[in-house]
Amino acid sequence: MATYSLGSSDPEIARLDAQAEFLRAPTRVLLEASGIGPGMRVLDLGTGLGHVAAAVAELVGPHGEVVGLDVDPRMLEVARTRTEHLPQVRFVEGDVARWREDRSFDAVVGRLILFHLPDPVGVLRHHQQALRPGGRVVVLDYDIGGLRSEPGDPLTDRMAALILAAFRAAGADPTIGSRLEPLLAEAGVEDVEGFAIARYLASDDPVGPAMLSGVVRSLAPVMVAHGLATEAELGLDTLATRAAASLRSTGSVLVPPTLAGAWGRAGLSRR
Length: 271
Ligand SMILES: C[S@@+](CC[C@H](N)C(=O)[O-])C[C@H]1O[C@@H](n2cnc3c(N)ncnc32)[C@H](O)[C@@H]1O
Description:
There is one protein chain. The protein is of the alpha/beta class. It has one domain (10-265): Vaccinia Virus protein VP39 (Rossmann fold). It is 42% helix and 21% strand. The chain has helices at 10-34, 51-60, 73-82, 120-128, 154-169, 180-186, 207-225, 231-234, 236-250, and strands spanning 41-45, 65-70, 89-93, 105-111, 131-143, 148-150, 190-197, 253-255, 258-265. It has a 7-stranded mixed β-sheet with strand order 3-2-1-4-5-9-7, with helices on both faces. A two-stranded antiparallel ribbon has the order 6-8. β1 (41-45), α2 and β2 (65-70) form a beta-alpha-beta unit. α1 (10-34) packs parallel to α2. The protein is globular, with a radius of gyration of 19 Å. The model has no long low-confidence stretch (mean pLDDT 95).
C-alpha cells in the first residue's frame, strides 16, 4: 500500500473539512447523476472523515446502508462521532486494495481515493466482484491539471506547479480525474459515463488563497524532501495573504482543481 501523502494531523483534518464543504454541491450533483438512490447498500472507499458517506446516506435514506472504509483509524474515529445521527452509516478499518465483506453491495463509491492508489484499476476490479450483478461503480476524483489563475498570477501558478510536482513525487496521480472513464472501462465497468464540474473564484474570494495555502502546507514536507522548494520560498505563515494580494493585484480568477465523476455498471460482479 502506498503511504497517503497528506496524513491526518489536526491541520489536515481542518483542510479536509474545508475542502469537503467546497465540494459538497458538486459531489451531490455527481452522486445523484450516478444512480445512487433509496434503499441501496453502498461501500465508500477511502471515506476519510465520512463526508461522502454522509452524502450517500441522504440519498439511500433510512432503509439503505453505507459502509465507510478507510485505513486511518484517526479519520474513522472523527467520522464515527460526526455521523452518530445517521444509523444507516458505519465505518470499518481496512485497506481498499484487500478489504472484502461477505454480503454484496448495490454500489461502490469513492471520492479522492483513486488519486492516491498505486493500482486503481486493480482496486476497482476487486470491489466490482463484491457487487450484486449490475451494481453501480462510482468514482469522483480531482484533475489538478485544471488548477491555475486566469489571466495569470505568477505566485498562484508557481504554487499550482509545485502542488502537481509534489503529488507526483509522493506517488499520487494528480490528474487522474481526467481519465476516470477509461480507467473504469479498463477495470471492466460497463456503460461508463460521467462529467466534471469546474469552479471559478473571483480575485477577491478568500476561499481560493486559503485552499491553496492549505494544500501547500500539507505537502510542504514532500516539497522540501524532494528538493522542489525551500521552506523560505514557500513562506507558509504568509502564503495565504500573499496569494490573496497577488490574485487581487493581477485581477486574476483562481480556477481550482476540477472535480470529475464517472460511473457505470459492474461487469465483473459475482453471478
Ligand atoms: C483525500 S482523502 C479523501 C477522503 C474522502 N473520500 C473525501 O472525499 O472527503 C483520502 C482518504 O483515503 C484514505 N486512504 C488512502 N489510501 C488508502 C487505502 N489503501 N485503503 C484505505 N484508505 C485509504 C486516507 O486515509 C484518506 O482518509
